[in-house]
Design brief:
Blueprint: H1 2-18, H2 22-34, H3 48-88, H4 90-98, H5 103-110, H6 112-140, H7 154-181, H8 185-189
Helix pairs in contact: 3-7, 6-7
Length: 192
């Protein structure tokens, strides 16, 4: 819902901005850029070009940290969701171990089904998210007077997909260790 609201607000702002002259838009953009924290950093007596490059680097680092933070939160949520699923099934997993199933078989029953869902979901959602962002992104940067190439090379889709699968397999590896720690004693404790 927030992206829809942001797009609607930007449409209203674009309509309002189109009625203003270019000079007044540039003046307001310069005022807005002076308000940022990065431009207020004291860089001493550096000349214009090194100062500009350093500030640009700091802006890019802020963006990179935001992306990395979002990825970390996504991985944490994925881990917690699958962990909750295995914790709820701990009695059944312990019962399977009592009947002689090994960890690999329990893993195939409880974790590998989620891998198929994650792989198919990433395969469908990565291009869908890119298409949606191609439509929405121009509304987010409507007040920036710059061009931006929005195309992805096909190799980048493959790299993103491989990254998603690698992250899932890493989480899967951590959860397999949790499966190893589940003992058949849990079944005996909860016997009715």
């Amino acid at each position: 819902m927030p992206p829809v609201i942001a797009a609607a607000v930007n449409c209203i702002v674009i309509r309002k901005s189109l009625s203003r002259t270019a000079l007044s838009l540039l003046r307001s953009e310069q005022k807005a850029s002076h308000a940022s924290r990065i431009s207020r950093i004291d860089l001493g007596h550096l000349s214009f070009l090194p100062r500009f490059q350093l500030r640009q680097l700091l802006r890019e680092l802020c963006s990179a940290f935001a992306v990395l933070g979002g990825m970390f939160i996504c991985l944490l949520v994925l881990y917690l969701m699958i962990k909750v699923m295995t914790d709820r099934a701990s009695y059944s997993i312990s019962l399977l171990k009592v009947f002689g199933y090994c960890t690999g078989e329990v893993r195939r029953l409880y974790l590998d089904g989620n891998f198929v869902v994650a792989a198919l979901g990433a395969l469908v959602c990565i291009p869908a998210a890119k298409g949606l962002m191609d439509v929405i992104y121009p509304y987010f940067v409507s007040n920036v007077a710059a061009g931006l190439e929005l195309s992805f090379p096909p190799q980048l889709y493959a790299v993103i997909y491989a990254g998603v699968l690698a992250c899932y397999l890493l989480i899967d590896l951590v959860l397999v260790r949790r499966l190893d720690r589940m003992t058949p004693a849990e079944v005996l404790k909860n016997r009715e």
